[in-house]
Design a protein that fits this description.
Strand order of the largest sheet: 1-6-5-4-3-2
Strand content: 35-45%
Radius of gyration: 15 Å
Number of strands: 6
Number of helices: 3
Low-confidence stretches: none
Structural class: alpha+beta
Mean pLDDT: 94
Distance between the termini: 25 Å
Helix content: 10-25%
Largest sheet: 6 strands, antiparallel
């Protein structure tokens, strides 16, 4: 992913309340069930930081997140970097009420280039990862009976 690339945007509607979606994206015990199971903590508070390791084959990715903006119950933004790799991104989770549903829109923007030669930083891999987390894992977590996309 490169600075100047169009943002990755993934939207998904859920048959649950805005409050239920908010809890799923901000309460650590819920986040670890659909997002990153080894994430040690999370608080939707500006300035909160967390760090945790994931590995793919022989590649290490120490995720470093810092919450940069919060609209309680509606939006949380965090800066996303990795200890082992250059690059800076921002992820914004925005929740809106749409009729009887709640819609979560994830927007991932790049502020500083990630390495081109790392497979996980290819645009297609990032799009696929966010699609998997939001349209599959989160959807299954919030409504286990709903069909997956």
């Amino acid at each position: 992913m490169k600075f100047g690339d169009p943002p990755i945007v993934v939207a998904q509607s859920f048959m649950v309340s805005v409050e239920r979606v908010w809890d799923a994206i901000t309460v650590p015990d819920q986040m670890t069930q659909w997002y990153f199971e080894n994430m040690p903590d999370f608080k939707p508070e500006v300035g909160f930081q967390t760090s945790f390791l994931t590995e793919v084959e022989d590649r290490r990715y120490t995720h470093q997140w810092e919450v940069t903006d919060v609209v309680p119950g509606r939006q949380v933004t965090y800066r996303w970097t990795y200890k082992e790799h250059p690059g800076v991104g921002h992820v914004v989770f925005t929740i809106a009420k749409t009729g009887t549903q709640s819609t979560l829109t994830l927007t991932n923007t790049i502020d500083r280039d990630f390495p081109e030669d790392v497979p996980e930083f290819q645009r297609e891999a990032c799009m696929g990862g966010w699609d998997y987390f939001i349209r599959n894992r989160l959807k299954q977590f919030l409504d286990p009976a709903a069909p997956l996309l």
